[in-house]
């Protein structure tokens, strides 16, 4: 298992607009295609105007396949066009679990 942590830095004052756009247009597509959402957050302390979301995958091959399917989805493409003006930067990290960790969805 791997977890992808994505951090989006937004223009100041755009967090509410981003979250509304994601909730109404992006979330259903992303959840349908990617599947296992671990969490979706906005920053309150530390670097501000950031959205952090995490997704679980079996491995890098699953991630690659699912993200390619999402990129090819016409609804996702339309959503991304609306999203881009809100963004300053994007960062993606792939995390691997410690040997003693059992994800909640596997209990």
- Main-sheet strand order equals 2-3-1-4
Per DSSP E runs of 2 or more residues, the count of β-strands stands at 4
Q: Biggest sheet: strands, sense, closure?
A: 4 strands, antiparallel
Helix and strand run: EHEEHHE
CATH first level: Alpha Beta
The radius of gyration is 14 Å
Overall tally of structural domains = 1
- Would you tell me which CATH topology applies? Alpha-Beta Plaits
Number of helical elements: 3
Strand fraction equals: 25-35%
Q: What's the CATH architecture? A: 2-Layer Sandwich
Helix content: 40-55%
**Average pLDDT number:** 94
Specify the structural class.
alpha+beta
Unreliable residue runs = none
> Could you tell me how far the N terminus lies from the C terminus, measured between alpha carbons in angstroms?
14 Å
Shape label: globular
Pfam families: NIPSNAP
Family: Belongs to the NipSnap family.
Protein name: NIPSNAP protein
Describe it.
- This protein is of the alpha+beta class.
- It has one domain (2-97): Alpha-Beta Plaits.
- 40% of the residues lie in helices and 30% in strands.
- It has three helices and four strands; from the N terminus they run βαββααβ.
- A four-stranded antiparallel sheet has the order 2-3-1-4.
- Strand 2 (37-42) and strand 3 form a beta hairpin.
- Helix 1 (15-34) crosses helix 2 (60-72) and helix 1 (15-34) runs antiparallel to helix 3.
- The protein is globular and about 40 Å long.
- The mean pLDDT is 94.
């Amino acid at each position: 298992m791997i977890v992808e942590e994505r951090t989006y830095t937004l223009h100041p004052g755009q967090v509410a607009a981003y979250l509304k756009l994601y909730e109404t247009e992006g979330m259903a597509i992303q959840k349908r295609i990617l599947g296992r959402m671990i969490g979706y957050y906005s920053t309150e302390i530390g670097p501000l105007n950031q959205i952090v979301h995490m997704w679980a995958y079996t491995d890098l091959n699953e991630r690659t396949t699912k993200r390619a399917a999402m990129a090819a989805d016409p609804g996702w493409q339309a959503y991304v066009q609306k999203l881009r003006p809100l963004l300053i930067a994007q960062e993606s990290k792939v995390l691997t679990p410690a040997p003693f960790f059992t994800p909640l969805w596997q209990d």
